Every structure is written in C-alpha cells, then in structure tokens.
Amino acid sequence: MGRPQIYLFGDSITEISFDVGGWGASLANHFSRTADVVLRGYSGYNTRWALKVLDRIFPVSRGGDGGTETAPIALTIFFGANDASLPNRCSAFQHVPLDEYKENIRSTVSFFKKRWLTTKVILITPPPIDEDARVRYPFGNNPEGLPERTNEAAGEYAKACIAVATECHIPFIDLWTKMQQTPDWKKDYLSDGLHLTKEGNQLVFEEVIKKLRDEGLSLESIPIDLPHVSDIDPNDPLKAFL
Amino acid sequence: MGRPQIYLFGDSITEISFDVGGWGASLANHFSRTADVVLRGYSGYNTRWALKVLDRIFPVSRGGDGGTETAPIALTIFFGANDASLPNRCSAFQHVPLDEYKENIRSTVSFFKKRWLTTKVILITPPPIDEDARVRYPFGNNPEGLPERTNEAAGEYAKACIAVATECHIPFIDLWTKMQQTPDWKKDYLSDGLHLTKEGNQLVFEEVIKKLRDEGLSLESIPIDLPHVSDIDPNDPLKAFL
Questions:
Q1: Which residues of A touch B33 (CB under 8 A)?
Q2: CA-derived radius of gyration, chain B
Q3: How close B119 comes to chain A (CA, Å)?
Q4: What pLDDT shows up at residue B2?
Q5: Annotated catalytic residue within A11, A26, A83, A195
Q6: CB-based contact (8 Å) between B62 and chain A?
Q7: What angle, rounded to 10 degrees, do the helices at B23-30 and A23-30 form?
Q8: Which of residues 212-241 of B touch A (CB under 8 A)?
Q9: Which top-level group of life is the source organism from (chains A, B) (predicted)?
C-alpha cells in the first residue's frame, strides 16, 4: 500500500497552484508525510472539454495486488471560471452555457462517485471576477476593451456549482461568496481579476483543509508515513523501524 | 498509463521542499502538465534508517495491466546532512560513520537501479554548513553551545556521495561545492546554517532541472498531458480531444 492520494482537478487556478505560495503546494507541504497531492490542472479548460477527457486524465490503475484500484482519499473539482466566459466576448470559445455547465459538473461528480465509492469529492466554485482588472490584463487580443468575464456571470456558475453539490450531497467551497466578504477582495485575492494572489491562494488552501477536516481527513486522522523523528528513541533509533 | 513520476527521496531538506519557494514545489510547478513530483522526505533521517525502510517507502505497485510496475522517470537521493552530525555532539544519535554512509548510499542506489532499469537516479550531496548559525538555531537542547555539524564533516560526506555516484556512473549534484562558490553562501543559501533559504531552494531547483535535462528529461522531451490551450482551435475546440 502506498500513501493515500489527494487529487486536484481543475483549470488554470489548479494548474498553477504549485507556483510560489500556491494552494496546491501548500496542501502538499501540509500533508508532506501523510498524503500525496496529485496535480491535474488544465489551463483554459472548461467542463465540456474536461468531460471529454476524464477517462484519459484518470486511467484505471490497479493496486499492489494487481486487482482492485486504490481510490484517492479526496479530490477537488474546480471548474467554472472558463465556462463563465461571456459568449460574445474575446474568450467566447471557452464559454459553456450555464445549463450545460451544471450538467457537466453533475456528470463529472458522478464519474468519480461511481468509480471511487470512498473518495471525498469537494466542489469549488469559480472565484469572483474583477472586471476592471480583466481589461487591464487581457489573456490575448481584446480589441473591444471589454471584460471577457463578469462577476455576475461567475456568480451564476458558482450558484449552479453549489446546486449540484447540494443535490449530490457533497461538500463545496463557495469561493465566489467567501472572497467577496473581504472589502478589498479584488486587490487582496486576485492578481489579474481572475487568478489568485498569495492571499487568495492561502484562502483556498485554508478552505480545502477545513473541508477535508470536516470529512474526517486531517493530520490527526491520516497516519504518518514512518515514525516522526521526535518519536525515535535517541538511545535505540532502529527500534522505531522494527 | 498515468503520468510519468519523479520521486524526491531524502531528509528534511526534501520533506520541507514544498514549503513556499521550495525546490520540490518548483519542480512540481515546472512539470505541472508533464510529470508528477512525488515527495518522500523524512526529516531527521539518515541513510541507516532510510535503508531499513526502503521497501516500505517504495512498495511494489503494478501498472494498469495488473502486471509490470511502471518505473519513475527520475529519482533524487538527497541524504548525508544527518549522517554527518558529529558523533560526540548533541545530534549524535543521527550520526552514521563515513564508511557506512558510503556503503548505505551505494546500497540505496543499487536498490533503485535493480528495481527500475530506466529510472534516472540523481545523487545530491549534503549542503555546506554554517557552524555559527547552527549554534544560534539549535534543533533541541545544546547545552555545550557547540555546533552539532561542521562544514568540514559535511564536505567529507559530500565527497563520499560523489565517489559513489562516479563509481555507479550516475549523475550527481555537488551542492556542498556549488553553494560555496558564492561568497555570501551562508546568508544567501542557508536559513539556519543547514536548511535552505528561498535562494538556496532556487539553486537546488535549477541544478535538478539541469541534471534532468542532461539525462534527456525536460519539458521538450516529456509529452504534455492533453493539448495546451494555445493548441486548441478556437473555431472547433473539441477537435483537439478526438
């Protein structure tokens, strides 16, 4: 048996989560002796594309006995920021209609729930959008100078995400609402109106840790991989490894 | 087939490598769409203890066909900082005599080379030691007020590590020498006379990337997991996923 695994599945906010101060790296650091944090982030992807490649991203693997697959202990699904791109602006090719987004999230959750009965699946809503910053930091050509995402649209997708989580009885992180509870959320949490600052990453990290703990997954509940150095008897160190 | 894996195996300098700006997190970020960086760091451990638990840390796993195990593409072995603790000072319980250290590193390399024929195994020497800082930042009780590690001793273990790498014809990173080529190495690279600053982490990251590239492993040679968003046709996105 190897270490338990925690998968992070999502778009760019997941893909770049191992950058300096990123929420993925913080999780890996937090669980450095207890669980492997596995990165499955795909910049620019929406739920339509993700759904097309789910079984390629998560190929069936077999455990040490050559038989049953070991389910990860947890998995975050963090999509919607690209789906919520406006259909008539410069990122239209990433847009997915709200109803389809909802159906796609439902299918994605169902894929994991069917495959891995014990895995704690956590949905994360898209973050809020700072529209002015989106105009200042365009990802490509934006000749019209209009934001390709709005906070209102992101909010609709966040609500849809929560609706699916509630319907499926799985935990969720309402990042859209949570971030906006801080007055300076645009500056504090967003670096370009969409992606996360160090503080934004810290907030996501803390929320994920909290949800995992609610689901019974914490440093106290997951066994440490081999004795901690403070539990090794200085007078007879090898005893700890019998 | 899942993504290729890169294992980081070592002591605390490996275990804390996913902290903010850490070399492990930087590797995971660098390879975010190409390889999984798997953390196997054990704070305080020396090669004697590591050797005792090698087969528990690296249990045999089977591939998707229930048959052969998939070898990681690379693995770093980064031990020696604890082995080099002086036998008559406050960290004596971690000390491993130089000859045994050499033999242990040899056995560890041999374990991986026998198990995984294709894996690029990279040895990393212990870093240099700032003895004054070691007195200022003791890890536990140090009533004598003498450094429990010296730079000279660390250098002996570094030399032994390189000797084994040369003998086994595997790549190595001579961190002990490399760091000391910078005049202010004590302040620039070490936070407590032993562990790494952000700059020290950056140096290790860059050296590992360089060695991996020398061994044919880079972003150019490892295929990206699913199309990059810039390779997706905005007029027909789903074509990229057929």
A1: 15, 41-42
A2: 20
A3: 19
A4: 82
A5: A195
A6: yes
A7: 130
A8: 225-226, 228-229, 232, 234-235, 237-238, 240-241
A9: Eukaryota
* Residues B125/B151, Cβ–Cβ less than 8 Å: no
Residues of chain B with C-beta less than 8 angstroms from the C-beta of A196: none
Please name the residues in contact with B75: beta carbons below 8 A apart, sequence gap of 6 or more: B6, B7, B8, B9, B112, B116, B119, B120, B121, B122
Residues B43 and B57: their CA atoms lie apart, in Å, by 14
Q: How far apart are the first and last CA of chain A?
A: 18
Looking at the partner chain, which of A18, A33, A93 has a beta carbon nearest the beta carbon of B32? Answer: A18
Question: What are B231's two structure tokens?
Answer: 């390779």
> First-to-last CA distance in chain B?
18
Interface of A with B in 71-100 (CB under 8 A): 92-94
* Chain B residues with beta carbon closer than 8 angstroms to that of A48: 237-238
Tell me the pLDDT of chain A (242 aa) as tens digits.
689 999 999 999 999 999 999 999 999 999 999 999 999 999 999 999 999 999 999 998 765 455 678 899 999 999 999 999 999 999 999 999 999 999 999 999 999 999 999 999 999 999 999 999 999 999 988 999 999 999 999 999 999 999 999 999 999 999 999 999 999 999 999 999 999 999 999 999 999 999 999 999 999 999 999 999 999 999 999 999 98
Strand order in the sheet with B120-124: B36-41, B5-10, B74-78, B120-124, B172-173
DSSP element (H, E) containing A201? helix A198-214
For residue B120, list its beta bridge partners.
B74
Q: Give this complex's ipTM.
A: 0.96
Q: Tell me the torsion sign for CA atoms B62, B228, B37, B74.
A: positive
Put simply, whether A140 touches B (Cβ < 8 Å) is no
Residue A42, helix vs strand vs coil: coil
Asked about B228 being catalytic, the answer comes back as no
Q: pLDDT by residue (tens digit) across B197-241?
A: 999 999 999 999 999 999 999 999 999 999 999 999 999 999 999
The tens digit of pLDDT for each residue in B8-56 reads 999 999 999 999 999 999 999 999 999 999 999 999 999 999 999 999 9
In whole angstroms, what is the distance from residue B242 CA to residue B222 CA?
Answer: 21
Neighbours of A222 (CB within 10 A): 18
* 8 Å CB contact of A61 and B2: yes
